[in-house]
## 1
Amino acid sequence: MKTMWKAALLAGAAWGAASNLAVAQEQATTEQGVGVEEVVVTARRREETLKDVPVAVSAYGAAALERMGASDITSLQQSTPNLTLQVARGSNSTLISFIRGVGQQDPLWGFEPGVGLYVDDVYIARPQGAVLDVFDIERIEVLRGPQGTLYGRNTIGGAVKYVTRKIGPEPELRLKASLGSYDQRDFLVSAKAPIGDKLAVSFAAASFDHDGYGKNLNTGAEHYDKDVATGRVSVEYTPTDALFFRLSADTTRDKSNPRHGHREVQALNILGQPIPGGEVLPDVYDTRAGSGDTNRVENSGVSLLGQWTINDLITVKSITAYRSGNTEGTIDFDELPGAYLDIPGRYNDHQFSQEFQALFTGDRWQGVAGVYYMNATAAGAFDTVVSQINTTIATAGNVDTESYSAFADVSYDLTERLSVSVGGRMTRDEKYGRVYRQNFTGIRSPLFGNNAAVPGLLRSSFTNKKTFSKFTPRLSAKYEISDDLNAYVSYSQGFKSGGFDMRSDQILTPNSADGYEPETVDSFEGGLKGYFFDRRLSLNTAVFYSKYKDMQVTQQTPVGASIASQVLNVGRAHMSGFEVEGVAKLAHWVSANVSLGYIKAEFDEYKALDLTSTPPVVRDFSNSRVFQNTPKWTGNFGLNFSHDLGDNGSITFTPTASYRSSYHMFEIPSALDQGSYWLYDASLIWTSAQGRYKAALTGKNLGDERYRIGGYNFPQSAAVFYGNSVSAFYGPPRTVTASFEVKF
């Protein structure tokens, strides 16, 4: 608690000083026209200015994302406090996300994320294909801390909201082309047009391509390349002033080559001798993987929004959506031509969701209430191929989920300055799981084309059904210190339901068929938001303290030729820290952006089955376990210079620097852990006087930093059959992109 008290004292001092500034600023005089732009968000399912929302929120509009050079949503981790948003290990478009220490590293089907991803208020249930490219977008919001009341499913750590552009009253055609490093070739075309007074249509199509940052030295294929095509179409219908409908559909296809990773140590055979060609390659983007160069990820969805404004007090909404996805690929854990540890796999999922909302607005109160339903299936199969003993372990199964919930959140103004909010959500999840796991003699099983493989020991074959229910409350109070400054305190609880481990091995872990239980987070937060110096400075701060209970942790322990997988409710932990985000308008031609996040996350209890002991026993590992993907410090600083060229348009220059302190890849420290590093970016954008033309030059990772974003750790000391497979995946190297855009 010492860190929390220190953070609270610092925040109290800052808030006290800020309160005095808020009063004093009424006496200040500033240069005419200089001020920070006000930001509008929908964090509480209704439009509010950022300072009025008693939630820690980071918001990025289309212009800010362009200045950042954000190609996909993982760019947000460089500028958002206490956020990890990265491409998952061994994939091109699977997302892992952590906020304030809460998330989900393992993207296997049936596991659910700890940070909810929403596209136009539609929940995306699976991480495959969730590394969303940034195009034709209005804004992205990152909500930190549990958001169980309004967003419900799996927002125990927070939520990321991706909001696409709406159709405006004027027709528009936009063309954009980008060329850059590694033969980057990105193209975008979008069009929006009203058809009469009541109907409007829009579409956007984009392709994103670049060569690999490295090579597969075994096959000659590109490695860390990109080959993505995506499209979106919308139809808006407004039959009356009170009714609005929006039908949207999207599809994405990713045919980038498999991302195998980089071997970090010398490969060893079963006798502990070096494997020829198994040395550490000098280029971290190169590999010698031999499990294949075929990869395909497809995702598509359709949604229908209906909105009826009954009167000035009540508006009702209906959000209906269906999504599906398929993934076929392979992960070469050993990074060698031979199949020392190869994992070919496939996934498929689909989900249907229906949400009804009622928004209420009165003189002194406002709120939202609703119900939510989701029916989803996630299925898949993979082989664990171990060639040194001519063995394959085949794994397959599925998880069906039906989720029901009802929610409400109401705010009431007790006085002109003081308001309180009360919310809650009741969730009921019904899950049905089926798991199959069996040994085969041979390289690959019949699941992946080897019908000659000889079936052996049946390791798992079970079905089970479990139901999880939880009520999660939220309370907050907000006080307007002045017209430009608000302070708030809040309590919220997050909940993620339990489930079944698709890797369950009933021989090694007999109780795994029983599944694992839900986890919860109780979070206490206080914040100060507002403007200072006659709106020259916007500042948002928060301090938080969270109790994490019944944590779900995936633990994989090599046992002979097999891997014992356990998803365990290991115990308890606590997290505390603070966050600061600010924008300062230094003059009419220059502004500064800054963000800073600090978190201290520690296990209080970590009870797990120690499979390395004989017989296996339950031990408390809390003194030797750490939080994964949770750097203690995150920070960002940027400047934005703008200059009006008169009839020749305007130009902006935006240099930025971001920092992440050292962090761990897994709960057990390893050689794969990443040290602290800085990333330096810059963009130069010219816009014509009428806004019709735009040209940009963007540089990312200008210091050409090499930093790990994931890895697999199966060293020889733990498993002699796996070729001493310790591999890592790296963030992009230095890239420079030139783009040109024209609007008609």
## 2
Amino acid sequence: MKAVLREAVTGQWKPVTLASLLGAAHQAGEAAVPLLIGVVVDEAVRTGAGGRLAFWIGVLAVVFLVLSVSFRFSLRCAERAANLAAHEVRTRLAARVLSPDGGGGHGRLSGELADIATSDAQRVGQVNLALPTAFAAVAGLLVGAVALLRVSVALGLLVLVAAPVLLLAAHLLGKPLERRSDAEQDRAALASGVAADLVAGLRALKGIGAEATAARRYRATSRSSMEAAVRAARSRAWLDGWMIALTGVFLAVVALVGGRLASSGAITVGELVAAVGLAQFLLWPLSVFSWVNGLLAQGRASAARVAEVLAAPPAVPPGSAPLPSVAGRVELTDVVSGTLRGVTLSAAPGELLGVVARDAADAVSLLAVLARDVDPVSGSVALDGVALSSVEGSALRSALLVAAHDAELFEGTVRENVTAASGGRADEAMAAAGVDDVARALPDGLDTPVSARGRSLSGGQRQRVALARALAADPPVLVVHDPTTAVDAVTEVALADGIRRVRAGRTTIVVATSPALLAAADRVVFLAGGEVAASGAHADLVAAEDYRLVVLS
């Protein structure tokens, strides 16, 4: 948590420092105003000297100009620092969640991560607004105390003694707010995550008639979030209320002491006016401590949540070996992982290998080790003789791409989805995946906007766009999982031919049960019971009953 806050501040130290200095200048100007008014009363109004009155009014105008400009630019610098720091936190969170080594989003719903990257990041950034404000308030308090010391030693000492007491009170009173802000953000993030989860599965929920159950789940989560927010708001109200009360008592004491000094002749009428004005001026720097402490309390709570994501351990130990050139030989040797029980298989460079799993869990386990979402319990997975566990994450993702069956599309156009990671073969990939046919059925063709996760497209259209995106990436090794389950048999044959054509000379592993895809493969491996049960051409394997039941049922 401390590291996140420290980096948020030090990363923007220049605008924060400038904002603090300008804020101090603004407060000094504000403190000078009642002093100058006191001078006007004593030296101009009392004596009736018009020239001196005009002179001091001119001085007041200059002071007002300085404090106005300094306030404007101080706030601009502070807001800039706050927003840039929040942006930096969001960037770091995105990089951690998208890290090839994984683990950043483990155990959190997507909506919860989005809430951390928005609301919590914004609160961390607000620390850069709180610090210059606090510095300016302290500067104003000191300038006001010194000014009061000039008027009266008693009044100045009163301020210097009372200020630390009020600061300590603000810190102690802010502790409950920090705890409850943390709980509030946790509940809000969970509510966002549940909402995103329910929206993502809305069609499925309607299909099984579970709308009422889903609504009850979200209602309970939302109520919990609301109750946490109310508790946090109550703490903030108590903090503000107590600080206003304490500040009011303090100012009343200052005014009372100043009035007694004026009545006794210890200070002049102008000095009394200045003292009362300074007492009113001190209301802002004293009351702002409550606001600053509230921002800092919320910033600390949010920084702790951000730190949890940033410090999350990787899903797999990171590798460091580079892959200067990739021929494309993939080898699994005695792999035990998930439901796999000692699987040994290989794909030669340039081979189109089909993999059929009698149990869908075997296919999931195989894809997980190939994508290096997990490392095998025992055995090894190697690319060109180099263990995947030793390869640097981004290099591995560039060399070996696993295109999941449920790959999501992005917001943007159809064309932008395909070219997102294009290796320069986008047009060829779209033709191979039948995206041209999809485009003809859309109102704006390839420039038709795609909604989040591709929900504006049919299942078959989404599948073909996702396949085109994977083919366009053109990695040395491509693993695709069930890329044709939502299309008809004729389209399936065309897609199988397209995959073989585009991937000629490149290693491709197709994990599927589609007869068309398997017929296009150079070789097929059949997994049953977590082991390799058979290997050969699809035409030969289809004679076996177990294999035939899986691919032709």
## 3
Amino acid sequence: MLVGLVTNAVSDESRWPGWLGWLQEHAWFSFVVLGVTMAGLTALLAGLSETRPPTPPGRPEDGAGPGAAQVLRSLPRDTAAFTDRAAELERLVGSVRASQERGEGLPVHVIDGMPGVGKTTFAVHAGHLLSERFPDGQLFVNLNGHTPGRTPVQASEALASLLAAAGVPTQQIPVGDDVGAVTEARAAMWRSRLADKKALLILDNAASYRQLEPLLPGGSGCLVLVTSRKRLVANEEVVMSVDALPLDHAVDLFVRLSGRPADALGRDVVDELVRLCGCLPLGVSLLAARLRHHPSWSAEDLRGRLVAARDRLGELRAGERAVTATFDLSYRDLAPERQRFFRQLGSFPGTDLDPHVGAALGEVSVVAARRHLEALYDDHLIDEQPGSRYRLHDLLRDYARGLAAEGDSMDHVQAAQRVCTYYVAALVVANGHIVRSGAAVPPAPDNASRVETPALESRADALSWLETERANILACVRRANGLALYDLVVRLAAAMAPFLRQAGPWDQAVGLHRTAAEAARHTGDQRARGDALAELGVVRRFMAAYPQAIEALNDAVTAYEAVDDRRGKADALNQLGIVWYLTADNEDAARAQTEALALYRELGNRLGQANALADLGMTHRQMSRFDAAVEAQSEALALYRELGDRYGEANSLRDLGVAHCLMGTYDLATRHHQEAFDIYLELDDRVHQAYALNELGVVRRLTGDTEGARTAHSQALMHFTELGERFGRATSVRHLGVVERVTGDATEAIRLLVEALDAYRELGSRGGEAASLSELGVARGIFGERDGAIEAFQRGLEILRNLGDQCGEAEVLNHWGVLLLTSDEPPAARRHFDQALTLARDIRCPLEEARALEGIGRCDWTIDGPGHGVTSLRAAATVYRRLGVSAAADDIERLLVPRSG
């Protein structure tokens, strides 16, 4: 099977997801022993802004193995200052309770109202009150419908985040270039996931019903609360408008938050204060905080300041003027250094931030940034999010951006430069934990030494940080591109590439690398353009978009040649070789890998040499050049061991096991597969454990241990099903079909083989299709369906010849010969066995050689009478004994016993 698959155009950890594409095209070998045949978020939902995509199919080399389903609690913290809303709460809770008691589906509840009125606070408070009614989880997603400077979250992106956060293995989350089709597929999966669940979903800040409709669960037991500034119109909804607080409630909130006795404030003055800010909770909270932080002020002092600020901001719309006036009052009360820090927060293109980002924006230390953020939170100018992160309310973000625009016109550009530089430096630290040893990683910027980066001590730390910051980093790429900061665009894209390669979704990575390639074109940096195009080619290969992958990689080679970048050219050639291998262009694949290997050797790049050798070995094996395959793969294995690259070592061991199995050295094949399995177990890589189990099962079946084979394939099937790895699951089903046929249940064998065949065709795997057809022909022959068996053999043989898989071709010819012999057509059968014998000897495939010899001997025995064909039969028995296939040898010897006597 896949060994050492894959190389990377820029960073070698990209090699791992590539196994899927390889597997989809590989002509999986199968064997016959006289009728015995063997045809492979936790997303940051609170404050989600752009995308939380899934992790791609492939080995979890990043350590982020598929997560199990879990009960999620991602609601923001409930506020202790929540005031009344008793009528609205009673209506909402009553509506939910009534629907549940009647056993009816829960309607969507839409909470609308003007900015600052407390829609989100109300929804979160209601969510906490109702949480016990929804034990399967409570999720919060910010859709950024009205966030200044932010693009509303697309439904497909939000669905990817929800699915990943709900525990869906990333391999199951659909990706593709057709956004509409991807959205539909993800929505269907989301509905299925929650079909029998009781979960609560808050969709905050929705722009339109069209944006949120695909996110709605299909099950009747889920509650969806939507907040929006717009009055969304749709069927079967409960619409709840949240208005400004009644005067008495607004006064109560002010008194409570001011920390002063009501009688010391003066009711008339407090009435005027809350009226001036429109009785909006956000404005009331800010005003009360101002008074609490100024013990020497009276309520009258605060009123005078608010009136002055409100007059200054009079050009604003009436609805926003009152609240914005409270912002201005709060802002002017800050110390100058904190005012500057607050202005810089408005330049952040992301959604939520931590002290490290704050430090980069504000040009201060992390300690100082943390102090500023905590103070701004105390002043109600920012909100606290889970994980010691902070977020600006949309109106406050807009206000901060307006303040920045009043000052230095270049201030927002400089802030973007600083935060992008910070992320590049932090990504260098994270990549140090997730890329393979010896892989190239983008260097830190020259001024990175002045940047404080987070303490990421392990792979788990790095992956957690990357998941949290993903949307923010991609938002920074867009902001930098919009400001023509092309060098930073290129650096960020290159630094994000290793993570996106592993975590996906690949359609998002395609957009990022296209942007980077265009940015590099603007700067005239051909090397950077080559890097971006090579990454684009790698991702396109993962998506099985092979023509687009070849185009991008050829363009990358051209770009590297223009600047004499031999390392980049070698990487791109290595990737081109893999794509050609996947499309069965074996001669082109071997040529590309050989050229890449020569370049790596000139450069002294040992990891590159190992990768090219491993991929060259696979190409030789696919061409049935087994000796050359073993030689190349053994050299790769030695290099991987020198480098301490455990994944490379395991993959080379596994591919050597496949080659030795084809060559009939089953003891060696078993040892290699077991060693590979043990390493995958050590690395907690369940995907590759499953592939190793399938290979072990093959060897067990060929050596007569059918129950051991069944156990191994069943374990592999369980892993693949849990992980959502469709190709591996199809291969396990096919192997189990062979086991059923060998143990005498042809009906079940046909059912399983048809299932595998359908899956391979859906995946576009020609090799898997051919292997299934070969096995299906045998099973149908046993069942008496002669015409159906021959049709399957013909179609399978055609595919195998196109793929250049001579071993598979010899196997089908032997199968076909057995069918003809048992159908009383020995002359035709002998012709098939003769062809199989020639092929098997040419490629040194002893098992197929033995089967062909046995078939020839039995044909001669039948045609010319007992005693003829003995030489061929004895030669077959000798090979069988050498291979350890005792059952077949025993059958021949029983046939020859009377003759010997």
